């Protein structure tokens, strides 16, 4: 492919509005261009990367019997009314009307559409299981689109759906998808973890997220590619190292989620779902008489702890929530934070938000900062985190402004409806399997699989007749991959800083892409330094022809640009191998540079194809 024929609008400087390095490089290297907020055009290089990733997906999905189709992106609102999501999905849902004033939406996901298709076409369990998927743009009206392709209003997604007559069949396909996803992300060169996830607005039971791990910014060895004139990092002056560290720190760490994982086992979960080991205490503590004390101007846990000189873990935090119209009281140990996702999932609530001050005063007779579980009406449901059981003689709000109670105890002074895991896990705590300590890392969600069960088939009447001729709702699974965000996830891991030593002895550094071999838009970048040199141009054409016949995809920079411009653009584009045809063209000698390592070597053109084959092993 001739570079002069491609649209690759590189920029000399990083875009000023980019906050994460992947966004900055995709724009600067001419891979994408923003059309409007959260909406991007994928230019030729980006499109080639996406198509390669799609090919990997299609190969792995064919291996598990998944069949590709294409559904419309413009959907009737009637289907979403059937499932109940038209009114509950939220403000992210694009709603519009046609000329007849009928309601439509732009599809953010396609559970309803696929359920309707199967409902209308399949009536017998004998035609199940069915495993289908599509790759298409999705639409969500993000309030604040940001981070380039990581949070947009239009994005490309692979969404798959399976339909089953039995839960055993769903379990089998769910496991197939798990293995397929692992193969896809491994083939893509991604550093990822499969973690316990939250189903969120999708509904359903079991789910697993696949998270691309954001690299540690403190490990310079992972980020630097050294010029051949630099033996190792120790040669680089401290002032340059300091500037590189500042450059790394200037970019936000991408990743919308925190991953909690064990340092000694396979346990990994989204922080929203992460648990810790819990051992119910058996040590007896004498219960002391309840005492009411004045706590003027002390409302927060820290203020109360300081005022009464008690540790935060000896206090109980009382929170009040409205869950689908029901007031719920939540108790936590004072040094813990509530995990609202855990509470929502435990209650199976569609709607959860903190209670208003008016609602709180009506029940407690006091305002926030003085609330406690003692003396509440028996009709009020009190849900406590498991660690609340470990606190004896606790300090709690007295339900009177400016006062607290000391030495409050469960059962004697107040009743708890149930104890469940509600707290947010902390780094360094023991993993729930008892093996190892929890560590935290930032991650970018690139895939998610769900066991939906009958969430959609029941509400939409998608039934099949079983072997006894009885109608039963179809059991479903849903499987998504963020295709366009893979571009950003890959670059967050594979962006590199090139450090080189100039002929004056100075050091300079610059960012570049470093795509894995399987996803790079081209395999080799051939650069004739001087397009007026007929020998070099002819040799370049020969190289392109030879490598193409060997199955390599080659980009030839045939532009009449200065060598510096060509090399700069080549670094930005980030192809795995660069072949420079320069002063030794008459001797049929070219320079080969391996981007991942920065290594260079001179090779005779007669040996070039074999050399590249060895390097690509």
Automatic annotation (TrEMBL):
The keyword Metal-binding does not apply. It is an enzyme of class 6 (ligase). It is found in: Cytoplasm. It catalyses: tRNA(Pro) + L-proline + ATP = L-prolyl-tRNA(Pro) + AMP + diphosphate. One of its GO terms (biological process) is prolyl-tRNA aminoacylation. Keywords: Aminoacyl-tRNA synthetase, ATP-binding, Cytoplasm, Ligase, Nucleotide-binding, Protein biosynthesis. Its EC number is 6.1.1.15. One of its GO terms (cellular component) is cytosol. Residues 48-516 form the Aminoacyl-transfer RNA synthetases class-II family profile domain. GO terms for molecular function: aminoacyl-tRNA deacylase activity; ATP binding; catalytic activity, acting on a protein; proline-tRNA ligase activity; transferase activity. Pfam families: HGTP_anticodon (PF03129), tRNA-synt_2b (PF00587), tRNA_edit (PF04073). Consists of three domains: the N-terminal catalytic domain, the editing domain and the C-terminal anticodon-binding domain. Homodimer. HAMAP family: Pro_tRNA_synth_type1. PANTHER family: MITOCHONDRIAL RIBOSOME PROTEIN L39/PROLYL-TRNA LIGASE FAMILY MEMBER, PROLINE--TRNA LIGASE. Belongs to the class-II aminoacyl-tRNA synthetase family. ProS type 1 subfamily. Catalyzes the attachment of proline to tRNA(Pro) in a two-step reaction: proline is first activated by ATP to form Pro-AMP and then transferred to the acceptor end of tRNA(Pro). As ProRS can inadvertently accommodate and process non-cognate amino acids such as alanine and cysteine, to avoid such errors it has two additional distinct editing activities against alanine. One activity is designated as 'pretransfer' editing and involves the tRNA(Pro)-independent hydrolysis of activated Ala-AMP. This is Proline--tRNA ligase. It comes from Pseudolactococcus hodotermopsidis. The lineage of its organism: Bacteria, Bacillati, Bacillota, Bacilli, Lactobacillales.
